[in-house]
Design goal:
With about 130 residues, the chain is α+β, with helices and mostly antiparallel strands. The protein has two helices and seven strands; from the N terminus they run ααβββββββ. Helices cover about 20% and strands about 40% of the residues. The strands form two sheets. The chain has a four-stranded antiparallel sheet with strand order 4-3-6-7. Strands 1-2-5 form a three-stranded antiparallel sheet, with no helix packed on it.
């Protein structure tokens, strides 16, 4: 018993990762993006239309760019990443061909002008 107490005292147990500060900055940035999205007068709208999903971005000044991740919690092989590329009306169509029915999470990380936004939306594909 004494030996176990001695050995456990010599073990180096780090509860914090080595890049803790970098991760914390990333978390702060994500929270800022989510706050920016909540403060929008008109939020991003997601509409499931048959085997397509329409993502409608609010009208903003400046170019809209970013990434949409289609995340399937039950099977990562069906995850998809698509660049944000809305048309002049702010609408982007995502084709769901080849994806099985089920629950997906759309993780939309986008930027308009100098401001960044992040929103998540759960969708059910039939």
């Amino acid at each position: 018993m004494g030996y176990l107490a001695y050995r456990s005292g010599k073990e180096n147990i780090d509860l914090v990762t080595e890049d803790y500060y970098k991760q914390e900055l990333g978390y702060e940035s994500q929270m800022d993006k989510m706050r920016n999205a909540r403060l929008l007068a008109q939020p991003v709208q997601v509409q499931v239309e048959g085997r397509n999903v329409a993502v409608v971005f609010p009208v903003r000044e400046g170019n809209v760019s970013g990434e949409i991740q289609m995340f399937r919690p039950s099977d990562a092989q069906y995850d998809r990443r698509v660049a944000v590329a809305p048309d002049a009306a702010g609408k982007q169509q995502l084709n769901l061909a080849g994806l099985p029915a089920g629950l997906y999470r759309l993780k939309i990380d986008w930027k308009a002008g100098e401001k960044s936004f992040y929103t998540e939306e759960a969708i059910n594909i039939n």
